[in-house]
């Protein structure tokens, strides 16, 4: 079954149209990448889905049109967004950030076991459990942002440039943890990433955006083997 379906999305900032026909679909439990150069419209696509940017076209989630809904409602129906730049609360501890992520949930016992699970997935966060968000390294903040989003138990987790600003080894371990999260839950993922190598190891399929349009969609393995993609996004 299709969880999320974008059909011919458009979006503008003032008079400037930056998305001009993005279509993609994320199956239940699937993981899909959005690749593309700087400014191609990847971040704007995620913002359109979570209701932060007004969009044209159709955005369906579990078969229902959600275009035009506000960010709160969209979060409430099971879409979580980890924005570029992370968005954790600097003044709150790791523990408090995780609790804030779960604020809409009633299943308190499960909330505690989810926290235990995340601290096992990200041992760095366990060591920093009572530290303020502001005291964390860039990699730890990214781990916290992902964990906080997961605490809402979304059906779809949208990650924007999870590797941005991280040392290569840290970026790799963050992606390994995301892959484990994927394997061990039924969560679906939509992943925006400049580092196509990392993204293509995680996702099943990916869509390439060029100046606000989807120009190519394919299976990860297929994209990795395409010369054009290798030259543009895989450094080879
Ligand atoms: P990046 O990796 O640089 O974030 P991206 O593919 O995610 O690139 P977007 O951030 O979606 O691209 O930006 C698409 C276009 O919209 C770019 O030309 C960008 O300069 C422009 N843009 C983004 N945010 C705004 C804004 N708030 N106001 C005006 N223009 C914007």
Summarize the structure.
The chain has 236 residues and is α/β, with parallel strands linked by helices.
Global outline: globular
Bound molecules: adenosine-5'-triphosphate
Helix content: 25-40%
- Uncertain spans: none
Straight-line distance between termini: 35 Å
Q: How many DSSP helices?
A: 10
Helix/strand order: EEEHEEHEHHHHEHEHEEHH
CATH superfamily: P-loop containing nucleotide triphosphate hydrolases
Annotation keywords:
four-stranded antiparallel beta sheet; 236 residues; 28% strand; binds adenosine-5'-triphosphate; 10 helices; alpha/beta; single chain; Rossmann fold
Task: Describe the secondary-structure layout.
Elements (H helix, E strand, L loop, with lengths): L1 E12 L2 E12 L3 E5 L6 H8 L5 E7 L2 E2 L5 H6 L2 E4 L11 H8 L6 H14 L1 H5 L10 H13 L5 E5 L7 H17 L3 E5 L3 H7 L2 E6 L2 E7 H5 L2 H7 L3
Parallel strand pairs: 3-8, 3-9, 6-7, 7-8
Antiparallel strand pairs: 1-2, 1-4, 4-5, 9-10
Helix pairs in contact: 3-6, 6-7
Adenosine-5'-triphosphate binds next to strand 2 and helix 1.
């Amino acid at each position: 079954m299709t969880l999320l379906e974008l059909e011919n999305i458009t979006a503008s900032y003032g008079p400037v149209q930056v998305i001009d026909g993005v279509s993609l679909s994320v199956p239940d439990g699937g993981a899909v990448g959005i690749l593309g150069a700087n400014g191609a419209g990847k971040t704007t696509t995620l913002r359109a889905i979570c209701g932060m940017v007004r969009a044209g076209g159709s955005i369906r989630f579990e078969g229902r049109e959600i275009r035009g809904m506000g960010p709160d409602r969209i979060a409430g129906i099971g879409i979580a967004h980890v924005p570029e730049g992370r968005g954790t609360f600097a003044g709150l501890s790791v523990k408090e950030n995780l609790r804030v992520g779960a604020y809409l949930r009633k299943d308190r016992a499960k909330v505690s076991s989810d926290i235990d699970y995340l601290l096992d997935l990200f041992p760095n966060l366990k060591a920093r459990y009572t530290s303020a968000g502001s005291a964390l390294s860039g990699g730890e903040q990214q781990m916290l942002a992902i964990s906080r989003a997961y605490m809402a138990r979304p059906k779809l987790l949208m990650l924007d440039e999870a590797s941005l600003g991280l040392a290569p080894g840290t970026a790799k371990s963050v992606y390994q943890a995301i892959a484990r999260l994927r394997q061990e839950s039924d969560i679906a993922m939509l992943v925006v990433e400049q580092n196509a190598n990392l993204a293509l190891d995680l996702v099943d399929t990916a869509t390439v955006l060029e100046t606000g349009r989807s120009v190519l969609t394919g299976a990860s393995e297929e994209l990795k083997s395409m010369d054009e993609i290798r030259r543009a996004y895989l450094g080879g």
